[in-house]
Input
Amino acid sequence: ADLLETLADPPTGRTTRLEGIFGLCFRDAAGRISEATGAALAPSSLDDCGSPLQDGLLPAAGELTQINVEWTRGCPLSCAFCTWPRRQRRVRHFSSDYIARDIAWVLGAGYERVLICDPAINFKTSWLRLLVKTIEASDPEQRITFDAFLQYPCLSAEQAELLPRVRWDRLMLGLQTDDAEGLAALNRPRFVRERFEFAPLFKANQL
Output
């Protein structure tokens, strides 16, 4: 079943049809929250999902000069407070060609700022390296400023050298708590203060 097609149909019998859409949570006829049980339809390549930018679904920049992009799907953390299924602790990436086309569209449409919607761009240094290289090649004049999220346990000297090659407006790091019991309840790794003291690492690389 397709979510958009289902919502476009008359409400009669809609709950039954929603049950066939994988990954969907909804309220059934009795008002209880239910999870759909339909089969997953995962494309072999995320590029096959299409891009709202490249497919012409979004307008050119006007009063709003920031646009959000999604260049990954998933998350490896499986935090207790998150709705992402714990059984799917993986991340998939769109290709560098896809990202380059998105950036070309952003430049052509007159947007000045891009928020990368990703739990963190530095889970893997190999991905961060590819992302930085693609942004550099696609926007060599650095006309776009970027916002992104980082995971502090993943930060390394190599990542700190890679990050300044992109024109960032904001790099955001979050810390829910440093309490061991609280982190265990959230299904997060133990807090290591030495790993969180990244200011010298950033300062050395002029971030």
